[in-house]
Amino acid sequence: MSEELGRRVDVHVHPTRYSRHGPTFAEKNRIEFSPEGLLREMDVAGIGHGVFLCPRLAPSLEAGLQDVSEVARRTGGRFLPTGTVDPTKGTSHIETALALWDQNDPPLVGIKLYPGYLPFDVTDPRLEPVYAWAERARVPVWVHQGDTSDPDGLLRYVRPILLDEVAVRWRAVRFVLCHLGNPWIEEAAEVVYKNENVYTDTSGLLNPFAERYEAQVHRMRTRLRHAILAVGDVRKVLYGSDWPISSIADAVGLVDGLDLPSADKERILGGNARELLGLRG
Ligand SMILES: [Zn+2]
User: Fold this and answer.
1) pLDDT tens for residues 103-139?
2) Quick count: other Cβ atoms within 10 Å of Cβ 131?
3) Ligand 1: distance of its center to the CA of 242 in Å?
4) In angstroms, what is the span from residue 66 Cα to ligand 1's centroid?
5) C-alpha torsion sign, points 257, 259, 263, 267
6) DSSP structural state of residue 260
7) Alpha helices in the chain, H assignment, sequence order
8) CA 127, CA 119: separation in Å to the nearest integer?
9) Mind listing the domains of the chain with CATH numbers?
10) pTM of the model as a whole
């Protein structure tokens, strides 16, 4: 146990037991697919906390929450738990989710939505109670945007522009537009630029199975740099890995290699998330 935790924060990790492709990515990245393995990678990179996004493939709402909460407790709070919900399952499923979120121990730090993987988009009226809950609980909503790693996902549901309407309607709710909306990065940057309550994360931008991996890293870093310029405010950009899709070393390296002042990079790697999540210190 290190005496002092790193001040960096990873806002997007999936150390879940309910993962279809996690072990395959972990093998390719030569990392250990377990919360403890992830903690060791985080320690090397000076990352104190990781936001554990609630798995969408858990067999029930209860099982998903149990997974994130048990890992949060077991790791002394280094993983921060979130909830998720499938609005296509109807009103009573959503009501059950809200009731479980109210009682969750430890308290949830946010909600993750998986449009595209599931056939809904963020403007779906069935999500209104979810946004109202997030406003009441004062926690951000993470929204998957952009390419789905599952070929059965539907891209019409994942265009960043859809989040604009929701951000306008729910000004008191903060949203994290995940993956910079990749490949619709310019569109995502505009939504973040325009809306004070929309942030973005740098997660899942690297595919370890891609050919010419180094060239891909270079291309993505250039796109990320342009997106930050378009957003115009480095405080709106949060480091995330999408672990195990990226190793922590690769995901941190993407940000570390940006042509930015080191104070800005540290903001992206942790300072911004600490403010967003209200982490002390
Ligand atoms: Zn993810």
Assistant:
1) 999 999 999 999 999 999 999 999 999 999 999 999 9
2) 19
3) 5
4) 19
5) negative
6) S
7) 22-29, 35-44, 61-74, 91-103, 128-137, 161-169, 185-194, 213-231, 248-256, 262-266, 272-277
8) 13
9) 8-277 (3.20.20.140)
10) 0.97
